[in-house]
């Protein structure tokens, strides 16, 4: 563990030195809040669902099998009781301290905002936002949670669609452009809790030209070899040890 301790000290030094830090995170940031990475195989898929999760969470499947889509979505993607963990909280504190400029996340759970982060770019949308496809009426999470089958708009009867980016759908251009700008201008980029396997999101890392690249992830990532600091450990534990400047 001494090694991890030294790595955390190194991270502390970087955070103390720089005040233009951008954080880029994925599913691993929320697993310590009890939200499983839906890609992790837990055997349940084979018992309950006839299709792999990537198929169910695709635009074409949403169109062709909406009932099955929502069955999976309610069961596997919604965690209303999840609370921010040490990583979410520390990032919000570091933003308030003028260290972290932006959090760019692939997660759709809203936990960064719940922890108090203000500048959060959600590359894949949020389960907390839902819209009627016909009249664009906004609905919160409860509209999906408290419905069965296909959720319908109270106003016009249209289908309520979660504001999350499904497979085969493009990312929001405004969000992408803002993420590129923050990463390109950052002095430090901390990549955390992501295997960097999902594109185009993972490709945004290419825009970083700053001083220090930090990678914090339990498993190996394609960027490990480029990292100035590589920490292979649980991200909540790592951030829990960081002191506010």
Explain this structure to me?
This protein is an alpha/beta fold. The chain folds into two domains: 2-35 and 84-124 and 166-240, 3-Layer(aba) Sandwich (Rossmann fold); 44-76, no CATH class. The protein is built from eleven helices and nine strands.
Biggest beta sheet summary? 6 strands, parallel
**Mean model confidence by pLDDT:** 92
- Beta-strand share of residues: 15-25%
> What kind of assembly state do the chains in view correspond to?
single chain
**Stretches where pLDDT falls below 50 for ≥5 residues?**
none
How many domains make up the coordinates?
2
Order of helices and strands: HEHHHHHHEHEEEHEHEEEH
Write the CATH architecture name of the largest domain. 3-Layer(aba) Sandwich
The radius of gyration over CA amounts to 19 Å
The count of DSSP E runs of length 2 or more, i.e. the number of strands, is: 9
For the largest sheet, list the strands in their spatial order: 3-2-1-7-8-9
Please, what is the CATH homologous superfamily of the largest domain? TPP-binding domain
Distance between the termini: 24 Å
Question: Can you tag this structure with a few keywords?
Answer:
EC 2.3.1.286, single chain, alpha/beta, elongated, three-stranded antiparallel beta sheet, NAD+ binding, six-stranded parallel beta sheet, Rossmann fold, 245 residues
Write the layout of secondary structure elements.
Layout lengths: L1 H16 L3 E5 L2 H4 L12 H5 L4 H4 L2 H6 L1 H11 L9 H11 L3 E6 L5 H5 L4 E3 L2 E8 L5 E2 L1 H5 L14 E5 L8 H13 L2 E5 L19 E5 L12 E3 L3 H6 L5
Subcellular location: Cytoplasm
InterPro entries: DHS-like_NAD/FAD-binding_dom (IPR029035), NAD-dep_sirtuin_deacylases (IPR050134), Sirtuin (IPR003000), Sirtuin_cat_small_dom_sf (IPR026591), Sirtuin_class_U (IPR028628), Ssirtuin_cat_dom (IPR026590)
Function: NAD-dependent protein deacetylase which modulates the activities of several enzymes which are inactive in their acetylated form.
